[in-house]
Amino acid sequence: MAKRAFITGITGQDGAYLAKFLLGKGYKVFGGYRRSSTRNFWRLHYLGVNVELIPMDLIDQSSILAALKVADPDEVYNLGAQSFVGASFDEAIATGEVCGLGVTRMLDSIHFFNPRIKFYQASTSEMYGLTPPPQNEKTVFSPQSPYAAAKLYGHWITQNYRTGYDMHASTGILFNHESPIRGIDFVTKKISDGVARIKLGYIPEMYLGNLEAKRDWGFAGDYVEAMWLMLQQSKPDDYVIATGEAHSVREFCEEAFSYVGLDYKKYVKQKQDFMRPLDVPHLLGDRSKAEKVLGWKPKVSFKELVRMMVDADLEKYQNPGKHSTQFLKHI
Q1: Catalytic residue, candidates 8, 120, 126, 188
Q2: Which of 91, 128, 147, 311 is 20 to 30 Å apart from 58, CA to CA?
């Protein structure tokens, strides 16, 4: 009998890649999505993913319980979040409701419905904030945004339910992971999309914030495998998932522009409006534990990731007839 998985946030980057991965493993996959006036399933369409979708909201516990009743899952992957760090400063309360208390509602619902369900919580490297790299599972947290603070609450409450109720609840402290279906609000997507438009003559230049911030960037398609591996272990735990390499935003620009034969210095301008009130200077993950226990390593290199994203955006603009209006609007 096929395993059943329920993914919150299935319309996001990670949710879509995870759904595709689990379907490849023979799972029956259900996805939770928040009702809105506009449908936002373009990532699933882009990856050719077909799953059963269930409306739910992480701020409404009754909808969570109803979704669990329909999905009756063996595994739950909680990826639903307000995941844009910059926006969390403007939407601090809403971010806390979803990224923090939303995790508690999900865990509480699982404990009530079926405490034997295996649970994965998507934590984030942003929780480390100003703590010097490299960062691992024992590194002290120092969140520098409402998003990071809310995620830290979700991280710790998952540990509380794991120890307090003996639940199989694991967390993945994922460092930055990108893909062709990354949202346009994220700096990597701004760069790859901007490079494509500049190369094709649509715009003369692009504007970014802090070019010196360093991040450990990997491919989202690699990282979802680590999520799955965590729930296949006999005991739940916390794992850092990272490449072990850090690159600055400036380096990302340089690689993306040089790939299409351009000098980024001629096209990239900094703008104060894009600077965060608090910024994290350097994130670099130590994945030793994940490699040892899970047998996980990233497959896609930094250079391959950048080129993959630029290629996808070039193709998008050069062959618009292949893509739906909704896809073009978002990607």
Answers
A1: 126
A2: 128
In a domain, 114, yes or no: yes
pLDDT, tens digit only, all 331 positions of the chain: 899 999 999 999 999 999 999 999 999 999 999 886 456 899 999 999 999 999 999 999 999 999 999 999 999 999 998 765 766 677 899 899 999 999 999 999 999 999 999 999 999 999 999 999 999 999 999 999 999 999 999 999 999 999 999 999 999 999 999 999 999 989 999 999 999 999 999 999 999 999 999 999 999 999 999 999 999 999 999 999 999 999 999 999 999 999 999 999 999 999 877 776 667 889 999 999 999 999 999 999 999 999 999 999 999 999 886 655 445 554 4
Same domain, 154 and 68: yes
- 26 and 126 belong to one structural domain: yes
| 36 in a structural domain | yes
- CATH number of residue 50's parent domain: 3.40.50.720
pTM: predicted TM-score of the whole model, two decimal places? 0.94
Per the residue annotation, which of 27, 77, 120, 147 is the catalytic one? 147
Q: Is 255 a catalytic residue?
A: no
- Residue 240: closest CA among 299, 302, 286, 294: 286
Q: Assign residue 9 a region (left: φ > 0; alpha: ψ between -120 and 50; beta: otherwise).
A: left
For residue 304, indicate whether it is catalytic: no
Domain span at 105: 4-177+218-241
Q: Choose, from 95, 124, 158, 171, the residue flagged as catalytic.
A: 124
Tell me the CATH number at 262: 3.90.25.10
